[in-house]
Amino acid sequence: MRPRSIMLFERIYGFNILLGIASGAWAWMHWTAMLPPGMPPQVATMMPIIMASSLIGGTIINLLLLFFIARKGAEIAKWIFIVLFVVGVVGVLRGFAGSAVQLPAVTRVFAIVQIVIQAACAWLLFRPDTVPWFRGEPVPPNLRDTFS
Fold this sequence. Notes:
- Keywords: Membrane, Transmembrane, Transmembrane helix.
- There is one protein chain.
- The protein is mainly alpha-helical.
- It has one domain (4-31, 48-135).
- Helix content is 72%, strand content 0%.
- It contains 5 helices and no strands.
- Helix 1 runs antiparallel to helix 4 (105-125).
- The radius of gyration is 18 Å and the shape is elongated.
């Protein structure tokens, strides 16, 4: 039986993936507004391909992480999730500090919400009831109801 922390992680992270797809779709519709002034035409031509590839690739990676963490209890997937979360936080902070691409307010809001959700997911992965899950052991009865 999966621990409650993992089941909650699965639901929250699944919502986060859907939010990422929505954010990517919104960015897709407004990609021309994100181009810095003086962008070479070749880059502007390739931007939709880059964005589509990023959205598809990111979604696949997130779905694989969700599967291997929530269904298989793979500890390596947990640590990959943590590393990608830290990289994402650094990227968001750099984006807010100033970069060549100025993100619209809606995209920034999506980014902040996703970082908060991912922080909650990271916290769930280190709850006491997840330790046996990632070791491949059954969850002891005293840890089954962590949130009750």
